[in-house]
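Figure 2 data, in text form.
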Amino acid sequence: MKQKENLSNSEQKRALVMTLSYPSADPRPLRMIGFLQSNGYRVDLLSYPYNREPIQGINRHHEIPSPKYDLFSKVIRNLHGLSPVLSGWIPGKKLKEQLILSRFELASFSESLSDETYDLIVAQDLILLPIAFSMEKKAKVLFDAREYYPSQFEDQWFFRQFEKREREWLCSEYLSKCDALITVSPGLKRRYDDEYHVNFEIVRSVPDSIPLEVGDVSKEQIRMVHHGGAIRSRKIENMIKIAQQLGDRYSLDLYLTGEPGYLTELKEMLKTVRNVTIREPIAFDNIIPTLNRYDIGLYYLEPASFNLKYCLPNKLFEFIQARLMVSIGPSPDMADVVNHYGCGVVADEFSIESMVDSVSNQTRESIQQYKEKSHQASSELCFDNEKKVLESLLTKLFPDNE
């Protein structure tokens, strides 16, 4: 698809990108917005407030209130949408939609946006699909499923009791109506396709290509790094234990955002660990250049839920783009990437001991070779290549555009 430039407002197609995230630091919506803008779209955004600098070129920002995660707010939110929706006692799609949207303080947006006219609506969360389909007119709807939503928090009692059934209803009601469907990994695609008889395309969460050199492995201490959300279900403490067992020959820096209480617990744990340090979070544009200073990108994630088992996260591809050796557990979709490109090691099983063995068996020479393999893979695992799937979808949705 050819890049569109210098179009007047009346000539531009209009797109609305909707995401339940803080967009300034969320790579996937940022890439989607940039992709649409480069293809001549005038883009509006529905999201939480900017937590960093505003995104350049956004026409209009519809701001959703930031969510509250304290226990009282969670109880009230779930009680608000309790048994009528989840037990199916109330017939009628409209009422179900309004109850679901009200739980997430989104009902007002369903009304205020209903008079807007867009050519394309991109929904990056399942709960946003009722808003997309309240704007019937001529808009095409692209659903970007970043999770398998019916199992998103299946390890949490609140989710199993209060939200799982409504997620299943939303999938049954809306997936087949979407004009295009994309997701992040083969495992998620198979589950959606099998359960709901739809056809998702895979658009992996790969970064832009960045021209970097492969750094030499440190002679003093092998430098490991992990970055991302300090979310309790990810058990960041396991990576601390891995580094601790590897000993002083290795260091681990953690660049973390997320739950303040959990971060405090991790910092307390580190009082007795000499070779692990929690650093300040990295600005989005500096993530890959910062990672490039290290030797090994470490990510150990036990498969406590379906989504954790079949994740294919930004950070895996950011490690590769940063020219690092990758060290992971045997998560199927991540392991397929690492084994295909030969850019790291996959532990034999999900255990701290197995992870320690897979790393400690490496020499500085083998780590350097894995880093070179990441360098080779980086030219392929970048958004310039991945966006071809999106370009093909836009061509199918708007064949008269060519």
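Caption note: Residues 83-89 have pLDDT under 50 and may be disordered.
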